[in-house]
Prior knowledge:
Two copies of one chain form a homodimer.
Chain A: E1 7-10, H1 22-37, E2 45-48, H2 50-58, H3 67-82, E3 85-86, E4 92-93, E5 95-101, E6 112-115, H4 119-129, H5 132-149, H6 155-169, H7 179-196, H8 206-220, H9 224-232, E7 241-247, E8 258-263, E9 275-280, H10 284-289, E10 295-296, H11 299-305, H12 312-315, H13 317-334, E11 338-345, E12 348-356, H14 361-374, H15 379-385, H16 388-391, E13 398-399, H17 401-409, E14 413-416, E15 418-421, E16 424-430, H18 433-441, E17 446-450, H19 458-463, E18 466-469, H20 477-485, E19 489-491, E20 496-499, E21 504-507, E22 510-513, E23 517-521, E24 526-529, E25 534-535, H21 541-553, E26 557-561, H22 565-573, E27 579-583, H23 584-588, H24 594-602, H25 606-631, E28 635-639, H26 653-663, H27 667-677, H28 689-694, H29 696-717, E29 722-727, H30 733-750, E30 761-766, H31 769-773, H32 775-781, E31 784-787, H33 789-797, H34 805-813, H35 830-844, E32 849-852, H36 860-868, E33 873-876, H37 881-894
Parallel strand pairs in A: 3-4, 16-17, 17-18, 18-19, 26-27, 26-33, 27-28, 28-29, 29-30, 30-31, 31-32, 32-33
Antiparallel strand pairs in A: 1-2, 2-7, 5-6, 5-7, 8-9, 8-11, 9-10, 11-12, 13-25, 14-24, 15-19, 16-23, 20-21, 21-22, 23-24
Helix pairs in contact in A: 4-5, 5-7, 6-7, 14-15, 14-21, 15-21, 21-37, 22-25, 24-25, 25-29, 29-30, 30-32, 32-35, 36-37
Amino acid sequence: xxxxxxxxxxxxxxxxxxxxxxxxxxxxxxxxxxxxxxxxxxxxxxxxxxxxxxxxxxxxxxxxxxxxxxxxxxxxxxxxxxxxxxxxxxxxxxxxxxxxxxxxxxxxxxxxxxxxxxxxxxxxxxxxxxxxxxxxxxxxxxxxxxxxxxxxxxxxxxxxxxxxxxxxxxxxxxxxxxxxxxxxxxxxxxxxxxxxxxxxxxxxxxxxxxxxxxxxxxxxxxxxxxxxxxxxxxxxxxxxxxxxxxxxxxxxxxxxxxxxxxxxxxxxxxxxxxxxxxxxxxxxxxxxxxxxxxxxxxxxxxxxxxxxxxxxxxxxxxxxxxxxxxxxxxxxxxxxxxxxxxxxxxxxxxxxxxxxxxxxxxxxxxxxxxxxxxxxxxxxxxxxxxxxxxxxxxxxxxxxxxxxxxxxxxxxxxxxxxxxxxxxxxxxxxxxxxxxxxxxxxxxxxxxxxxxxxxxxxxxxxxxxxxxxxxxxxxxxxxxxxxxxxxxxxxxxxxxxxxxxxxxxxxxxxxxxxxxxxxxxxxxxxxxxxxxxxxxxxxxxxxxxxxxxxxxxxxxxxxxxxxxxxxxxxxxxxxxxxxxxxxxxxxxxxxxxxxxxxxxxxxxxxxxxxxxxxxxxxxxxxxxxxxxxxxxxxxxxxxxxxxxxxxxxxxxxxxxxxxxxxxxxxxxxxxxxxxxxxxxxxxxxxxxxxxxxxxxxxxxxxxxxxxxxxxxxxxxxxxxxxxxxxxxxxxxxxxxxxxxxxxxxxxxxxxxxxxxxxxxxxxxxxxxxxxxxxxxxxxxxxxxxxxxxxxxxxxxxxxxxxxxxxxxxxxxxxxxxxxxxxxxxxxxxxxxxxxxxxxxxxxxxxxxxxxxxxxxxxxxxxxxxxxxxxxxxxxxxxxxxxxxxxxxxxxxxxx
Amino acid sequence: xxxxxxxxxxxxxxxxxxxxxxxxxxxxxxxxxxxxxxxxxxxxxxxxxxxxxxxxxxxxxxxxxxxxxxxxxxxxxxxxxxxxxxxxxxxxxxxxxxxxxxxxxxxxxxxxxxxxxxxxxxxxxxxxxxxxxxxxxxxxxxxxxxxxxxxxxxxxxxxxxxxxxxxxxxxxxxxxxxxxxxxxxxxxxxxxxxxxxxxxxxxxxxxxxxxxxxxxxxxxxxxxxxxxxxxxxxxxxxxxxxxxxxxxxxxxxxxxxxxxxxxxxxxxxxxxxxxxxxxxxxxxxxxxxxxxxxxxxxxxxxxxxxxxxxxxxxxxxxxxxxxxxxxxxxxxxxxxxxxxxxxxxxxxxxxxxxxxxxxxxxxxxxxxxxxxxxxxxxxxxxxxxxxxxxxxxxxxxxxxxxxxxxxxxxxxxxxxxxxxxxxxxxxxxxxxxxxxxxxxxxxxxxxxxxxxxxxxxxxxxxxxxxxxxxxxxxxxxxxxxxxxxxxxxxxxxxxxxxxxxxxxxxxxxxxxxxxxxxxxxxxxxxxxxxxxxxxxxxxxxxxxxxxxxxxxxxxxxxxxxxxxxxxxxxxxxxxxxxxxxxxxxxxxxxxxxxxxxxxxxxxxxxxxxxxxxxxxxxxxxxxxxxxxxxxxxxxxxxxxxxxxxxxxxxxxxxxxxxxxxxxxxxxxxxxxxxxxxxxxxxxxxxxxxxxxxxxxxxxxxxxxxxxxxxxxxxxxxxxxxxxxxxxxxxxxxxxxxxxxxxxxxxxxxxxxxxxxxxxxxxxxxxxxxxxxxxxxxxxxxxxxxxxxxxxxxxxxxxxxxxxxxxxxxxxxxxxxxxxxxxxxxxxxxxxxxxxxxxxxxxxxxxxxxxxxxxxxxxxxxxxxxxxxxxxxxxxxxxxxxxxxxxxxxxxxxxx
Lengths: 895, 895
């Protein structure tokens, strides 16, 4: 470690790093170095690496010894480049300290500006800038920000002091405050710090300030918000964050100064249009925080939005021209849409950040296709530009235009704000993030309405179907986070008056209450009272292009888990290449069937069971016929009955009575049978092929239904269906051998009735650890494997999914499992069994067809793992099929 | 396969095989060859190998082609040796066909005698023997036996014909039947065969008869009784059985002929005394079947038994002398006690079988020690002579002699029979094996009383605590099987009158009913009415010798699973070298503690929980003090709380009300909390270290109690206890790290209070598949592993032990699991995870202490596996400790 370089300089000529070093320098640090090397105007600074963050935590929140010396050196270099001196009374260097992880984590990490100010340097700054008010305003901002971020003193403390002071002076606005006023406030601020910081004064030494800020950045990597964000964005804690220390430039030095944020293309729609917002005489945080609503940058955009604020293009035409040139240069250089931050200090443009811009799925899609057509990127790159997880947004319903027109005509538009994140949603109004999370946990659809959002609202935003705010622009916290999450969002709907206590929101006298239904259209910024009909999304155009390119790139086949004809149809339209899991028990629950199923269960003899099964046979057969008809010559994997029989029994006393009446069986017999069937741990009980072992007639009926359906559909359509009969919950070769023999016997009895040859396979779920371990044995009998990773996760981790809620939250919070193992495959644990099962199965049958049909089959990270193992296919729910196709392409292209 | 030798000749000079070829020739075949080579009088014959049995099943119950030619050749050789011809009308060769597996399976396999008889050869035999009655009696016996064994026609069919015939003739006994009578009966027998064999006649061709009998032997390998016996004796189905075809000798050719069975030492007590029974003018089956009660062989034994029957030593002194010489020779040759079968044909002795004799545990122990002292075998061989599973019998109570004297004085002796298998038992009378099995399944202790037993009774005998029969001698089916199972047995209690229908048994007018309690003393042959007190067995003498030799031989350490001081004491006396699993939750259930435990669970805050835990602390501490005091400097592995909290909650409404009253909490709150705690699959729920993650204060209290107890006991005794703190249900390294940090903190707070240094370890159960897979990670934190193979079996196989009863029976019956995986480790599946966990754990810490604490820790086969893996110790219930010590020695000696 002694020779490790922990600090990298950038700007002012030489830069140690470049854009390729994102893992080490974080996104911001790497791009600052890269921009500086491109000759763009970047204030000089240095980056403390992400490796240091990791070392810091490995050492128990301590720094490696050699950091001190390296930091000193870089600070000297920075002073030389800036021509200023840190802590100087006459020519003070001020710096910003910002976090910068590998992946952008907006709003998650804390920032300190104006660091280096104290009573001496503030006076120096006042002299140097000739603007005392600016200098002391900056100083008090610094104390406030530093105290909040580093010393954990809430903003309220300082805001109260300021408000009291203004009241006393009879001031209305901050702009009424003069330099001397700020100086007085600063004295009060410092006194408050002593009170709230265990008697310790605000650090006067700029070096102490710097170390404090660095420590706060690293510390914030492990705060709850950061952990939550990482969890929902699949970012491992081990990546760490870098710290960027950069000499300050000031957007708040009067009307020739400004600060802003821009995107090289529209991040909401993907349109190739320079797009951004700015504030004159402001510091960067003001734009992002949404405290003042910023103005558009370009005339075109201002016109489009009907904004009255003067765009940058008008207020500072030269800077605007320079900025668009920089933007062009950056987009061509990075070959992707850029999200840039800039500051104008007394007419001079500085670039503070560039990064690949976050975008909605719709924008990602449009940009990828357009850039590909422009020749900027290849088809494969275009495919990689669309995150599979994001794609989900495009696959869900949007607002029906006719219904919307009608709703508008009916006067049901409640409010209109900024179209901050597209998509539409219907739900009940809530005003609080905890309330949103609680309601969502109960399965309710909610719309979160807030004045503005902050990082504390992340869980509430996640729980909501859409977010509406009264304040903040297109780059406000709410907008950025909502786009990242794929939630529709309407921002800056300024006419909203929210009274959280009363549970009311009103616009111009019209009031809605907590729990009222609204429909949000994130694509237009409108919020409607009541429900507005939605329609299926358009899957042609750009979507079809990307999917076509993805299909060319991928090697994994994609199937679907579906059993109803409606679902099978949807999945087929989404590109499913077969059925990976048809759960036959779902068909048993239909109202007209459950009595027959119960009659079977209540039968006291094999004969009685067979009579009931005789009645079920034509029903199951017609189910399978419908599926075969839709799927044609595509393989259909049908799993034989899996759940324990008690799942089909009535539960409440009332139901019991109904069933007793309907079935002619006494309540006593019914209750007795139900208690006989009761299990302590049904998940590990009498289910799956264990039913087939003890009640062979059930599986025989199902096999017969499958094969008879295949024969019928072959006759009817001239196309031979491809049934794959799957035996669940296998742990031994013997079980497969036993079940398979019966299935094959049934096939041999039925299939010869078809003129067209019908090929079928008999295979097994691999969903118990023992099955994975004994895969070589089992493959001697099984003709395919399908990894049932839901149950495999339950048994390997010893966690019942139904009961996990009680502790899995604590587990994720404490980092015991980085991701929910039921969403993303636990590759280290369950994954090893999947790998073992795959390798051992193929050691016996090199061409063994292997798929996955757990929830993980629709999860991009898990799909990548399946690809790596050389699986034949993944299978997922119908709406996830395009996600899986894209994820499979990503896996192939990244391999 | 074409060159495989399937048939091995023996006797009459040359033998192809010898005793070392037991695996191929079966025990009987190998020993017949060996005896012939030793120059003993063995009727010649040949053996069809066990390999053929396996080939037969592999080929789908078909023989390899080349068998036919090999059999022909051997038959020719046999004819030459015997000087007779198979199927000859004048000098017919008759043969016996018997099964002979690697391991002796008494009563399990079928035998056919007198094969080769038909109308022609029977007449030939009549001429040759000059005894028409003998010839036709033999013929009808053959038809009856062959029809039963090969053609599956019940004995009843033939017995009815015979009874009808005798009635018609006015005969009382079989001995009234003359040759002509038998001839008439034979005609009727053959007609009955046609009726009951689908119209097919009895085979006349001796070759057809031979093939039929061979097929029946191989077929019987897979009958239910054989499968059941194998299961309970750990014999794999793959071993197969051999078939022995041997020329007949006749013990039923008049009063100079006889047949008998003998043991070279007493198989019940181990006494070095020649011991056996015989019948004059009888065939071998008559002795074993228990139809006639045989006479003792020796004068000494006859005197001891007070038998009035003349012993062989008196009736045939020369034969007796020759027989004892043979017995001596065989025991010295085989260096073990022999179980021999012999026949005397017209004064000439023939040896039909020798094998190592089955014996009671007591006899095995006595013989092993005595033979070692005689210099016949070494200490290690002596150790190997005692089967660990058998040892169990010696560790359980026997009848108290004083109580017995009192019971006798009170006239409570119900009946006295033969002391066929030692040990004592108390239970309720049953008269039927199914009834016995049903009652045992309900946890009742039953005594099976039968006229005689047959292979159909095996399951009933297994389910009973003791067996009593009215008929049959010391080598009857009941006696042999009971000794093998370690069940006390009283045989041949001839005065018993059993009326199964009425559910009564009486002796001389005194009647007991089904369900009445009796006490059986298998060591004396007495059955007492009611209960007679029992005492602990003597663990000194021979037992102590063998254990001392075993301890020298073994490398595995043996600990115990115990938590009460009484159990810990018993285990220590049985030689436990530490505690492998102290289940702290058992201590929570005490009547004075459960209210406090419930108060903790019902507490709504951490504060409330801590208050309750404060009360539990001194209780737990005193538990641990007691254990440390007994165990001294031996390691004590203490598992922190494992079960889900709902296990401690009241269940019935009544209990609820009681608890509500006692705790001052309303029923509503109580019910709500109970339903909150309810889990779908508690086995996979909120338990083990998951409790420690969500309620750290529980584990902290337990750790504190452990360390404080250690400090107190160290002070009190001057000996430092060796606590090993075990974290249950771990799946990740993070869990161990989290828990360990808290435990270590507690240790650091408490242990310095001791003057004597107290060493402790913090380690983990490995009981989830993921823990085994990630053992290398986990070993970075854990200081020991203990494989919890109960839960590991549940999760790996996906079988809840509580629910398995519903299907595991079917599973074993169908051979899906050869043994109950909760009794003997599933080495192929669960075993691989254990091996993986061991290897991966040791890859990080080569000296990692590794043990096993599931039920398997007391199972000999599983212990052998643990030895092979190089584990540090096994841990089992107190009474299994000597079994484990012996099994560990076996494992080491066999390695």
